[in-house]
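Subject: for your reference before the review

Hello V.,

The reviewers asked for a structural picture of the protein, and I figured it would be easier to keep everything in one thread rather than splitting it across files. Below is the amino acid sequence we used in the manuscript, unchanged from the supplementary table.
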Amino acid sequence: MRQQARLARARAALHRALNPQPTPSAAARASLTDPASRLMLGKHGGYVQGYNVQIASARNQVLLAIELHDNPSDITALIPAIRRAQHNCVAAGLTGDVRAWLADSGYASTANFAALADLPLLVSITKEYDQIHALTSPGRIVPAGHHDMAVRLASTDGKQLYARRGALVEPGFAQLFQRFGRRLQRRGTATVDAEIKLLGTVHNLTKIFHHDARRKPS
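And here is what came back from the structure prediction:
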């Protein structure tokens, strides 16, 4: 009975997708305070009204970029985030080469790999645990456009570099959320983008102040 109910819901959803209504239906929902925001998957399940924030984090969680993304999916956010990080590095006079750009499987796509083919890019093409521990699922088929990335990840250098991804970026998000919380004060794409960039700047300045304080003699 549960499976029949799921099938009925799936058929109803397919019907709605194939027959879109020209005007909002009675079931339509929108945010009256910030129409530019979107429904995003919540951290602990369910959905929240908000934005998808992307960061490019270097060692010690110094942010090279913090960007606003209005799509729950991360796939289309990879190229803009990397290009913004490159721009910021040039503007800051950071001329050193990036040894690797690391991203989880949410950013994996043939289009991204082709557009960033000139960079030392390592993007997981499977689950994070499987990628870090070099596990392969029996019968798993690697898409044609992912073969080169799979080979790069399977190399000794690729394994060592990708294993550092979680320790670079995940604490960066945790520190931002711990310091500023998960709620924004502004509304609208432009002002929310300005707010998160301000928070990212404060985050980096805090890193600098703590670093300088540790270097001073007691």
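For the response letter, the relevant points are probably these. The mean pLDDT is 85. The first helix runs from residue 2 to 18.

Happy to draft the paragraph if you're swamped.

O.
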